[in-house]
Amino acid sequence: MTTESISRLLQRSRDGDREAMSELVPLVYQELRRIAASYLRSQRPGHTLQPTALLNEAYIRLAGAEAQQWNDRTHFFAAAASIMRNILVDHARERQAEKRGGGVTPLPLELARNQTAETPAHLVALDEALRALAAFDERKARILELRYFGGLSVEETAEILGISVATVGREARFAAAWLKREISG
């Protein structure tokens, strides 16, 4: 999977070539499935979604989205990771509504991966905090999303976002501190 070939297919899709998306899928499938599996590793045992189902739902939403929204490979993977997170948050909200609530309690970022498995309210609170962070600094929110929810390494995150490993580390530390403050009130 080369950055150039993916970016070229995204450009073709943006230009109205309907075949471009079907050519793109085989190139990005394994990476998207890895991101989906990483998201689901942090969910409760017996979660009703499996990585393939999460990926399929994300693909339906990606295919239905306007192609011009993806500028390049980085933008595409960030959009896919965001869509997967939104699917899980929607699922958590539905589960929380089924149980008729229980309050949202503060959750430190470092516990998010383990605690979201137990409490849908925590995932919803974390999602709201990430949205607030994105309004403040979108790149920092994407870094956290890719690192903590997408399960990507610092190096992979740097590659996808087109920034240095040092920048990923620095911005992730800042964003985690900001998010912790936001969640804990």
Write up this protein.
There is one protein chain. This protein has 185 residues and is mainly α. It has one domain (3-184). Helices cover 75% and strands 0% of the residues. It has 9 helices and no strands. The radius of gyration is 17 Å and the shape is globular.
Give a concise summary.
This protein has 185 residues and is an all-alpha fold.
Write the topology of this structure.
Layout (H helix, E strand, L loop, with lengths): L2 H12 L4 H23 L9 H14 L8 H26 L10 H7 L4 H17 L1 H12 L4 H8 L3 H20 L1
Helix pairs in contact: 1-2, 2-3, 2-4, 3-4, 4-6, 4-7, 6-7, 6-9, 7-9, 8-9
Mean of residue pLDDT values: 78
Distance between the amino and carboxyl termini: 42 Å
The largest pleated sheet is described as: none
- Along the chain, the helix and strand elements come as HHHHHHHHH
Helix count?
9
Number of strands: 0
Amount of beta strand: under 5%
Shape: globular
Q: Domains counted in the coordinates: how many?
A: 1
Radius of gyration: 17 Å
Helix content range: over 70%
